[in-house]
Transmembrane protein
Amino acid sequence: MMSLPAIIGISLGASAFAAFTGKNRHKPLGRRMLYFFGGFIGTIILLIAVNFGLYVMSR
């Protein structure tokens, strides 16, 4: 199982990479920030769901 700081760190890294590199580099800052926050929230929800699933399976 992952700790909460690990989940937050992975989420920040993944959303920053997706929002500020590659094809999003030429988009306006507001749109990139929207991608960043949306990706951050989505990744946190996904990782917490995976973490909960691992917890349930280990019981």
